[in-house]
Amino acid sequence: MHSSFCPPQRTLMGPGPSDVSPRVLAAMARPTIGHLDPQFIHLMDEIKSLLQFAFCTRNQLTLPVSAPGSAGMECVFVNLLEPGDTVVVCRNGAFGGRMKENVERCGARAVMVDSPWGETIDIDAVEQALKDHPQANALAFVHAETSTGVRSDAQSLAALASRYGCLSIVDAVTSLGGIELRVDDWGIDAIYSGSQKCLSCAPGISPVSFSDRAVARIRNRKSRVQSWFLDMNLVMGYWGGGSKRSYHHTAPVNALYGLHESLLILHEEGLQSSWARHKNCYQALAAGVDALEINLLVDKSYRLPQLNAIEVPEGIDEAAVRARLLSDWNLEIGAGLGELTGKIWRVGLMGHSANQKNVRLFLSALGSVLAASGWERKVDISQSLAAAANVFNDAEINR
Ligand SMILES: *Cc1c(COP(=O)(O)O)cnc(C)c1O
Question: What are the coiled-coil residue ranges (predicted)?
């Protein structure tokens, strides 16, 4: 009959979720208390201040939406947009396409600025679109395109938005904690993230933050926010009401214990150290992959350290390799999406998963599986591991 579910022990090096730290898992197993308990309200205040730290912002409206990253995305769009608005949307992968969906479902018009998958967002093309559509009141883009492993220049894009009188809307689901991100310094107006990528918490929570300009837009809407659950005017009374918090919905209490612990871990490490650790692990992984004579898809200047798009070599069955990594090595990596299906593997080095052991595990596993697959090229795993070790050693020496 039925029995308890005991998941296998995997190493998660895909596009998310990433490995969850034992500290976070332990936090989530603590006793559930009421979501209006004074102790819980104290925890909510701490989560808010830790999120302000992680986003580098003093925005008052900074909170975790009780649902995954996609809900954070939806939250930002439904609160800021009204029917008839025009939004310039940058699309260079799957998640830019989802932004378009959200804009249109709000009854607004999406002016698309497309770049090929694997390329970064073309700032000049964005500026041209803003010039051509002076009625646009928002610019939306993805900071870390998880479908391709591309970083966009969020600082320049946010500055452009402000120069053209637009609010900047930023998808930071994969960027938060993994690469430099400064909401206040860069003038970002609305941003959403996810718990399960570089924060290494369990999936299901989406941190969001809104600037004062964005809050003014929400307060001065002509129409009601189409979603009751995500209406920030109502949620603000719950997350921002001080000791007078009123019931809006039941917060996912234990999930928030986990988020708190994961943010605490980030705070203890420090943002700069976390960004540096992700970069170092990526450089070692890239050196090891290069030693196997396999290419990375994305140009060096805008690669994401936390998501590596590795080109599948000629004659290799993409899905078969991924299946072997999972079955023989308990190692999860991701497949390509959309037009990159079958052409790339997506290897995540996110949060708790970005460590030396995982880099070495991945290189050993990939090398072994390729060798066993009858690949015509000679696979030298020890050379690949040595290339990665050199990067780690150099980082130690320079510390
Ligand atoms: C994962 C991801 C999302 C969606 O987050 P979910 O938690 O899966 O809903 C949105 N945008 C980007 C860039 C992502 O990587």
Answer: none
Residue 112 shares a structural domain with residue 168: yes
Q: Of 144, 90, 173, 158, which Cα lies nearest the Cα of 304? A: 144
Residue of 12, 74, 173 best suited for mutating to test ligand 1, as the one with most atoms within 8 Å of CB: 173
Cβ-Cβ contacts under 8 Å for 180 (sequence gap 6 or more): 275
Domain boundary among 268, 293, 325: 268
Quick one: which atom of ligand 1 is closest to the CA of 194? 7
CA distance 19 to 120: 28
Q: What is the DSSP letter of 56?
A: T
User: What does the alpha-carbon distance between residue 117 and residue 139 come to, in Å, rounded to a whole number?
Assistant: 19
Q: Give yes or no: residues 185 and 280 share one domain.
A: no
Query: Is 2 contained in some domain?
Result: no
Range of the domain at 310: 271-397
- 346 annotated ligand binder: yes
Number of folded domains that form the chain: 2
* Angle, helices 253-269/271-291, rounded to nearest 10 degrees: 80
The per-residue pLDDT for range 47-92, each reduced to its tens digit, is: 999 999 999 999 999 999 999 999 999 999 999 999 999 999 999 9
Indicate whether 370 belongs to any domain. yes
296 shares a domain with 233:
no
Clarify whether residues 188 and 83 are in a common domain. yes
Judgement on whether residues 78 and 204 belong to the same structural domain of the protein: yes
Token pair of 246 as six digits: 């009123």
**pTM over the 0.70 mark:** yes
Ligand 1 interacting residues, C-beta cut-off 6 A:
16, 68-70, 73, 95, 142, 146, 171, 173-174, 194, 203
SS3 (DSSP) at 46 = helix
